[in-house]
Design goal:
Elements: E1 3-7, H1 13-22, E2 28-31, H2 45-53, E3 64-68, H3 71-80, E4 87-90, H4 110-129, H5 134-145, H6 153-170, H7 176-180, H8 188-194, E5 199-203, H9 210-220, E6 225-228, H10 236-239, H11 241-252
Parallel strand pairs: 1-2, 1-3, 3-4, 4-5, 5-6
C-alpha cells in the first residue's frame, strides 16, 4: 500500500480532506497535525512541522511527502534524508529565493499596504511582547485567508476557523529571530538543487509569485519536474483537488 504524508503549517487534517477523498482507496494518507505550542517562533515553523512529522512516519519511510508553502521546507528535509522517496512541493515558500539573481521579488501591492495599515494599532505591542489581541489575530487571518477569493465561502470559513484557533494557541509568538534577521530554517531550494530527481514542484498561477519561482527553477534546477497549474490560491488542493490527486497518483504509479 503506497503511503503519502501531507504537511501544511495549519496542521489540521480537514485542510487536506478533499484531496485525500479523490485518491484511490489503496493510498494510505498520513496528515501531520503538529500540536499547538505557545511561544512558537514563526521563523521555526518548518522545523516544528518536520519534528511533528517524523514520529508519525513508518520506519520504512513513505513513498511521497506533499508539503505546501512553508511546509515545503519540512518536506524537502524528509526527502533529502530518504525518509520520503519523493517530495511534491506545492507552491513552495519563496522566501528562500530572496537574493537569488534570477528571483524577481514582487512589489508590495495595495493589499499589503491595507494589511499594514490594519495591523498598525497592534504593531507596538506585538513587537514588544509577541502578543496579538483577538482583533489583531482576526486581521492577520483575514489577510492570509480572505484573499483566496477563488475558494468558496465554506472553505474560507474552515480555513479562518483553523488559522484563528492555531494562532490564538500559539500566543505569545517568539519573534526574536524575525527581529534579528536570522535565517528562517531549512532551505528547500538547496535540497532540491542537490537531488532534483527526488522532487516535483507544483506551481500555480499565483499573482507575482508563480512566474518568478518557475524562472529560478528553469535556470538553476532544469532537471526538476515542474508542473504549472492554473490555480490562483495558496490552497490549490481545495481549488482543484482532482488535478493534485492525478499528480500524486502519477507519481505513485500502478
Amino acid at each position: 500500500m503506497p503511503t503519502v504524508c501531507f504537511a501544511h503549517d495549519l496542521g489540521d487534517r480537514r485542510v487536506w480532506q478533499r484531496l485525500i477523498g479523490v485518491l484511490p482507496l489503496r493510498v494510505r494518507a498520513i496528515v501531520v497535525e503538529q500540536p499547538p505550542t505557545g511561544r512558537l517562533a514563526p521563523a521555526r515553523v518548518a522545523e516544528h512541522i518536520e519534528a511533528s512529522a517524523r514520529p508519525l512516519l513508518p520506519e520504512t519511510g513513505v513513498d511521497l511527502v506533499v508539503g505546501a508553502g512553508i511546509a515545503a521546507r519540512a518536506a524537502a528535509e524528509l526527502a533529502a534524508d530518504g525518509t520520503a522517496a519523493h517530495a511534491l512541493l506545492v507552491d513552495p515558500d519563496t522566501a528562500v529565493l530572496v537574493g537569488h539573481p534570477d528571483f524577481r521579488m514582487p512589489e508590495p501591492g495595495e493589499e499589503t499596504a491595507d494589511f499594514l495599515l490594519a495591523m498598525a494599532p497592534f504593531d507596538e505591542r506585538f513587537r514588544e511582547t509577541g502578543m496579538l489581541s483577538e482583533e489583531g489575530i482576526a486581521v492577520m487571518v483575514d489577510h492570509s485567508v480572505g484573499r483566496n477569493t477563488s475558494l468558496d465561502e465554506q472553505d474560507r470559513d474552515l480555513l479562518r476557523g483553523i488559522a484563528s484557533k492555531r494562532l490564538t494557541e500559539a500566543m505569545p509568538l517568539d519573534i526574536s529571530d524575525a527581529l534579528s534577521g536570522e535565517a528562517e530554517g531549512p532551505d528547500w531550494f538547496a535540497r532540491l538543487r542537490a537531488a532534483p530527481e527526488r522532487f516535483t514542484v507544483y506551481s500555480g498561477d499565483l499573482p507575482a509569485l508563480g512566474d518568478p519561482l518557475r524562472t529560478v527553477l528553469a535556470h538553476d534546477a532544469p532537471q526538476t519536474r515542474v508542473v504549472q497549474g492554473s490555480t490562483r490560491t495558496a490552497y490549490p488542493w481545495l481549488e482543484a483537488p482532482e488535478a493534485l490527486g492525478t499528480l500524486i497518483v502519477e507519481r505513485l504509479g500502478p
